[in-house]
Amino acid sequence: MAKSAALQPTRRALLQSGAAVALGSLLPWVAEAAWPLPAKRSVRMIENIWVTVRDGTKLACRLWLPEGAEKVPVGVVLEALPYSKRDGTRGRDDSWAGMFCPYGFAFARLDLRGSGESEGLLRDEYLAQEQQDIVDAIAFLARQSWCNGSVGMRGISWGGFNSLQVAALNPPALKAIVTACSTDNRYMNDAHYVGGVLALTCLHWGTMFRNVLVDAPDPQIVGDRWRDMWMDRLRNAPAIHAEWLRHATYDAYWKHGSVEQDYGAITCGVYAVGGQVDAYSESIPRLLEGLSAPRKGLIGSWGHQFPQSGNPGPGLDWVVEEVRWWAHWLHGVDTGIMREPMLRAYINEQTPSEVWPSDTPGHWVAEAQWPSPRIRDRTWHLNEDGLDAKPGAQVQRAIAPHQTLGTAKREWLPFNMAIDLPGEQSHDDSLALVFDSTPLTEDVEMLGIGKAVLRIAADRPVAKVVVRINEILPDGKSWSVTYGVLNLTHRDSHSDPSLLEPGKAYDVTVPFAYGAHRFKRGSRIRVAISEALWPMLAPSPEPVTLSVTTGASRLELPVRPYRAGESVGDLPAVLHNQQKPEVVGFMSVAGETIRQTGPDAQGKVTIIRDDPASKFTIADIATDRTGQTHWEASIVDSDPTSSVWKISTGWGSVRPDWNFRTLATTELRMTASAFIVTETMQGFEGDKKLFEKTEENRIERRFS
Predict the structure, then answer these.
(1) pTM (whole model) above 0.85
(2) Could you say which of 97, 116, 341, 504 would form a disulfide bridge with 111 (CB–CB 3.0 to 4.6 Å)?
(3) Which pLDDT belongs to residue 590?
């Protein structure tokens, strides 16, 4: 979701400040004598420089330079985002620059066209104009007297996306990228559609994004024209949800910026980084397999953050790894990093939901190449009496419709771990068709992307299937390990869907999200199959009964042979970040609440998430940043078209010479034939409303 949007970018990426982490030692897989860190230097920050791109538009950039760069030029790392560098991500940017730049690198933080103090208009995600602007910015940075001509890109969520996209354009000065919590496929692995099904995250992120589109520039940078620039953004902001709803399949709109269309276009070094709780982590094994450029991958235990934030923990002293990476690619120093394994991954030994806020128990493993020849699919057949190594009799098992199934897993992309991690799954399991293994006689360690192969029928022409993989502990509790979703009209193609023939059985493959988990001896593996997963996914147009054929359906998990002592042998235990970074940003986390009511007398269930008001002060620019968010989701269990999603979110900045706020509200209703989306934007200066616009669009539902 882009977002980060962690916010895809959704809000959380905007929120992370990334408090400094002590560098008590190097990463556990780096021998301290192998390559010592450079001596630290003092760093100078330049609040704003202007980068003029080819059409004359001026983009605003904040810059950090290490001492001596004017005499001995250094490499520079660029991060380009639509979240205002002045007040939106200031704390996070300061923190990273303070950790990274003293080791002899420059850091540039660019506001995209139409965001922050940059001129122009921001109209959508990942446009060709954005990518061309970044190419021009890279050339500009490479020409500076303090730069040695070598530029890198880094970023999380949106910045991870555009790092990949710009790498595919091959600007000559771009030597390498670090792409965190990003994706190679904007349709199948972003915040809008999950398995071809519209996701609540689309509405959540999109409402956040509408505030990004109209954020106001700071008059201390742009002068008195700030209000004119702001009003221009308000007047020209698109009805973005309607645009996304019009593109319900993997068409040219989503293929633009999806680097999986041509992995070969990327020739620079790529370090792909993520966490297992993050919804984007499945792109990392795809990138390692698809790219031919020099590449590395790291997948930890955490969510939509850089590794130093590490929530759920354990995190890493990540600056050490990036210093080694950038010294290799920007300064030509042999740090040994490219002789190390292609992939390092953290294997959970319990689910984060069981232990948070404690670190997730587990161990790090390494694979010299990906796909790993050591990992093999292990098959369990879905039989009448549960999961088994051999197929049993073929019997059709019906799955009754339950529109409220899914309340134990509300979020595609968890941000606030206290309320977003999937809960204990027994309630949802009781409404699903489940297949359990017998108690395991040995540990089973999965690493990678598994799948379910189902023979399945539906009694309606439009339907979806959700397959959840849980670990059932000896105490009977059910905990989420991974899951997969497939819009069954997309069974052959996400680009060219076709309606189902009611009652006809189809053989379909449902890929899961990335998983790295050890199922423990004595536990059972559960497959839970349903048609609904609400509120995370939009309901189908009609109630659907699915039928799964036992004996002809199976589970396939990528199983890695576990070597006792591996985590303390050739790969020592990882250094934990015991202190979680403070969260600072547009909106608070601590005050956020969620509650569920119902079913009432009509069978209606309502979920309300609320953070009514938050504020943090940016001391060095004497500015208060304010924010608010509220969303409601409701549905009647017997009627999928009763589903309503409504989200309001806004933010602003307060200072004697600058007092604005925006508020975006989005409501999505549905009939059997259409999505009806209403988008409202308001702009206030102080208490005075200066702008309001409401647009309603009706979008035909054909295959969803």
Answers:
(1) yes
(2) 116
(3) 59
